[in-house]
Amino acid sequence: DRLPPIQSASRAAAGGLERGAKNQFTTFSNFITTINQKKEGTGNKNSPTQLVIPNIKNVRDLPPICLDVRQKQRISIDTLPQELKAPVPPEPSLPIRTKTVKDFQDDMEKAKSSGDWKPVHDFYSTTFDSFLEINAAFKKDTNSPFNTIEDSGINAKFVNVVYDALLNTPQDVQKSVLKGIINGLLQEWKGPRTKDDLRAYCILLQNPQFSNTSTYVIYAHLLRQIAALTEADHHFLVHWSKKISQRRFKQVVDRLLQFISLRLFPAKPEEFPPMMKCTWWIPSATKVLALFNAANSLISPPIISYMDFYNSTLDHIDLMEEYHNWQCYGNSHRFSFCQYPFIISIAAKKVIIQRDSEQQMISIARQSLVDKVSRRQKPDMNMLFLNVKVRRTHLVSDSLDELTRKRADLKKKLKVTFVGEAGLDMGGLTKEWFLLLIRQIFHPDYGMFTYHKDSHCHWFSSFKCDNYSEFRLVGALMGLAVYNSITLDIRFPPCCYKKLLSPPIVPCDHNTLVGICDVTLDDLVQIMPELAHGLSELLSYEGNVEEDFYSTFQVFQEEFGVIKSYNLKPNGDKIPVTNQNRKEYVQLYVDFLLNKSIYKQFAAFYYGFHSVCASYALLLLRPEEVEILVCGSPELDMSALQRSTQYEGYQKTDLTIRYFWDVVLGFSLDLQKKLLHFATGSDRVPVGGMADLNFKISKSETSTNWQLPVAHTCFNQLCLPPYKNKKELKQKLIIGISNAEGFGLE
Q1: How far is Cα 279 from Cα 661, in angstroms, rounded to an integer?
Q2: Do domains 352-494 and 495-630 have the same CATH topology?
Q3: CATH of 638-739 given 3.30.2410.10, 3.40.50.300, 3.40.50.150, 3.40.50.10700
Q4: What's the Rg (C-alpha) of the chain?
Q5: Among 202, 495, 714, 719, the one annotated catalytic
Q6: Beta partners for 696?
Q7: Looking at its record, which EC class is this enzyme (predicted)?
Q8: Given CA atoms 364, 370, 376, 379 in this order, what sign does their dihedral have?
């Protein structure tokens, strides 16, 4: 028996599929043989004995799951082409099944006590024998069509009870379920799928048996069929999936991730068909995973964290090959994980961005060298770097002048020199420059940014000015930080990073608006929670809005002591806010505050960032991930730092080292941050965690009577003298970390 071909003229999703040999799935064939031997009435000649991959020419091109490369567009039936809005095919009549949750639980209890599993076996083998039987058992009302995205019609409680009990049943019961699933997958499909078919797919995806690698061949074919559904069918599955409970939802996601990991790096390769014979396994699983990612993004807050979709196994494959394939072939028939960036961890994305940055740095430096030689000029090492020379007393103006004058060198490796100081920049001076510059620019007296105490974050000042070049400088600083793998202590709200990726690639047409994104009250509450609360109260107010609030579509802002008014729409000062138009008023108000009133400031900031970080790798990032790349993580885990620390001249059991960690682990959070800043030049934790700091403690052999700890921030190294006791170590350490600014040479 063969899986029926999915008729389509388009190509297969994974390039290079080959027709499978008839007996290639030996594990599966043996498995079916075992089932047939155990099943009563083995005379059934129609029982399938092996599963064969259909001919490549008959395999449908797996359709796109979402509309853009970052897989976050909402799938809407209104946006589907006309041909996808086909009439709903009639549902075939379902068998009548009356077993309830209580009846099933009673059967299970009787089977456990008596050892007679026949009623349970009969229920499982009948229920999973076909898609119709699955619907007959688990559909809430067999007489209702349930053709809407709002209600799948699945009796979730019954499904959960049946699946929870399944793994505690005898092996012949479990095998009968798998054989029934095979029968369903082998059904000859004619015409479009019905909603009952989609319900069956939704139920089968939750089967816990698919956690076992012995079932992966069946699981792969289930995933293949789901991935090959039309976009309209995917639309229903996405909306139905978001109704699954959090625990079950995460189990399905984890199962899919495990399937991909074990196909990439099988613990027992002999359990699976050769990779060349099943290149469609991973693309199919990833496409189905994309459905769950889309479902997760439709809920606010999401069902599970976006990080739960990360597959850390991908950290160990050739990511740059994936990235280059994606750059060359885009979203064509050639599969790449970069088409589905939600599955790539932030650590892996950082590697892609760093290597892409390094390649750009090398390319720019090589071009500078070639230009120098072609003009018959003597090359020098400085031409390979972005050399920034600044005075501490004129930090902002000098930095702005240097970056403006050396705009063509922004993609070279950064080196900083403080005028009048002997420090050599091996990384430490660069960190110091970033820290001091950010601290000065974000000071309230500087007027570029407003600090909101309620939300503990900065936002762009809406004051109008003649020159927005300093906002471009801040954007360039953020870009340089990402480009040079430096973490910054910047407190922007998440909305800022969403705007920074709008769009992720700078448009060629300079008249195109940048930094404009859809904003809601949820975005405003992260910046101005009190105002957001007031607007939320307006939306829920049950009285007469027009008479009680007496507001119009006009807002007022104070600029340099002068109150200025702005209309939210034409003639807004003459349009009253009423119960009918208050939603429009709130939306326009939020859009004004977060988009329009700061457009020129943010546009300069946007162009500054992208002048350094112009890369297709940004298409892989979520706004939250950009924030982590820029700022690192503010959560310190000193115990993790202790575990990953290396020692030079000390052993981790030495008394001085034990004193050190006793003192540090007892520090307040503020002192711990000071220590981290003292030793590394930043108080933020990089993307890979504390282990990525490569922190080292070295023994200093100088006299300890006056010697304070010394740090080499270029190498994240702390030189610690062998103090006589814990009290002296604590005293000297606090003095050292609390009075550290500037550099010198020993």
Answers
A1: 51
A2: no
A3: 3.30.2410.10
A4: 31
A5: 714
A6: 646, 717
A7: transferase
A8: positive
Residue 223, CB-side half-sphere exposure with 13 Å CA sphere: 29
Strands 696-699 and 710-712 come out as unpaired
**What is the Cα–Cα distance from 177 to 407, expressed in whole angstroms?**
65
Is position 465 annotated as part of the catalytic site?
no
Cα gap 693→717, rounded to integer Å? 10
CATH of 495-630, picked from 3.30.310.170, 3.30.2160.10, 3.40.50.300, 3.90.280.10, is: 3.30.2160.10
Three-state secondary structure call for residue 298: coil
d(CA 100, CA 405): 77
Domain boundaries, the chain: 101-309, 352-494, 495-630, 638-739
Who's near 591: CB < 8 A, 6+ residues apart? 519
Is-above-0.85 flag for pTM?
Answer: no
Q: Round to whole Å and give the CA distance between 116 and 16.
A: 50
Q: Which amino acid, residue 577?
A: V
Q: What is the dihedral of CA 46, 48, 52, 55, to 10 degrees?
A: 30
696-699 and 717-720 beta bridge pairing: parallel
Please provide residue 5's backbone torsions phi and psi, each rounded to the nearest 5 degrees.
-70, 145
- Walking along the chain (746 residues) 10 residues at a time, the average pLDDT comes out as 40 36 39 43 37 36 39 39 49 77 94 94 94 92 85 94 95 95 85 89 97 95 95 95 96 97 92 90 96 94 94 92 85 84 92 83 81 79 83 91 87 86 72 86 87 91 84 91 82 93 90 93 95 95 92 87 89 94 96 95 94 87 91 83 92 92 92 88 77 87 74 85 90 88 45
Provide the 10 A C-beta neighbour count for residue 555.
Answer: 18
Assigned token pair, 169: 């049943």
Question: Is 3.90.1750.10 the CATH number for 352-494?
Answer: yes
Name 534's Cβ contacts closer than 8 Å, sequence gap at least 6: none
Query: Which residues lie below 8 Å from residue 460, measured CB to CB, with a gap of 6+?
Result: 448, 449, 450, 471, 598, 601, 602, 605
Taking Cα atoms as reference points, which of 293, 312, 313 lies closest to residue 303? 293
Partners of 457 in beta bridges: 452
Token readout for 466 is: 């003649």
